[in-house]
Amino acid sequence: MNLTLENLLPLLPVILTSLTAIVVMLAIAFGRNHWWNATLAVVGLNISLAATIWLALNQPLAPQLVTPLLVVDPFAYFYMVLILASTLACATLTHAYMDGYGSNKEEIYLLLTIAAVGAMVMVCSRHMASFFIGLELMSVPVYGMVAYTYQRKRSLEAGVKYMVLSATASAFMLFGMALLYALTGTLEFQGLAQATTLEVVNSPLSIMGVGMILIGLAFKLSVAPFHLWTPDVYEGAPAPVGAFLASVGKISVFAVLLRWLIETPSAYSMALRDVMAVLAVVSIIAGNVLALNQNNLKRILAYSSIAHMGYLLAAVVSGGVLAIQTVQIYLLTYVLTTLGAFGVITLMSSPLRHDDADGLFNYRGLFWRRPVLTAVMTVMMLSLAGIPLTAGFIGKFFVILTGVKAEMWWLMAAVILGSAIGLYYYLRVMVTLYMATPGLRKHDAPLNWGQQAGGVVVMLIAGLVLLLGVYPQPMLVLVNVVSRTLLGG
Fold it and tell me: Cα separation of 233 and 228, whole Å?
């Protein structure tokens, strides 16, 4: 194809984020300065975010094909905005976290921006090749980010564990794609749909290929029983990296899963639907039950993320336009809530310590020392539990509404049971925040500039969680437009 300005303009956010990574890399080569490199990354991400919003408001709603590999439409813009906003929050929190780190600090911003580029490529993918390239471009930098504070045993162990298991999942996906290509002769999502007949759908190669791709996706999404890496990696990774994994890592993979299922409806057979329903129920029950006895806040959030991926799969299984809208609403609310919770952990932690401040004992009586952080964490726990007047309630309400409309009663029973179990451990965290102990210091040391900026970020996130819980109408209108465009309506 001819690479003209008109063809490349829709990819401007990806290009600008890539340029940001290059600028940060060159800045590190010329001279190490933590504040300067962090600022370059944040400025570049802000420019990319502004460009994405401008394009979303000014470009036509019709999908714009950029080579056979990529498509840019309102669906892609929606998720690119989410990815860039989440990466911005993670970069700001990373600056607060890494400020006192004795070793090299600057490379983490390079890894962060490269991973963001990979995630953006994924949400624009309409071809298995671009899907895999984007997935690896996002995953490989995350290996380094998880093990970045390698002097700590848990961080290095988490990095190695995530690298080995993630590479195995990628191999499964690649083999599954190869089987589909051998059967159909194409890797385009729509090409797969056109080449797929009833005979092809029921062939062993097709079943094995789709199954292997689903296994790889289930690993990336921390869906049970492919979740075993999640608590260990979340616990060992630096707190802002955990925030990136739980937000951007989930957004991008779920977005490409949605596009694949919509553009290749034959892949979404009843057998696959039943398998996804079982995975949803197992994830909901396992995630919530395993979180009950945890005394580490990162592990609680890890098991919570497994349960929330189950809720999302329950919406996907229900099918229809409402299911697509529900997934986007739930992802938006879940990402905000997760960023806020990990943001508080980040501001309580330091890489100079042996471990992050992730034990529940670190948060005992936090209200009497850091009332603002306590308020933020309280809002996040209420939202994760799905309590009314928070964004999490809106997401869970739509999941149940979708399931009821599709008459998936047993699936909704699992959602309600899981929510009831989850309420216990979320309230347990909240109660810990307000428990005073004898001799408790009433004030902590003053915050530095980086921690103050991180504090502003988590307060803004808490404000958004409450605003969307009270007044969700703008979010619902936006999601409706995006969903209708994706479905060609």
Answer: 9
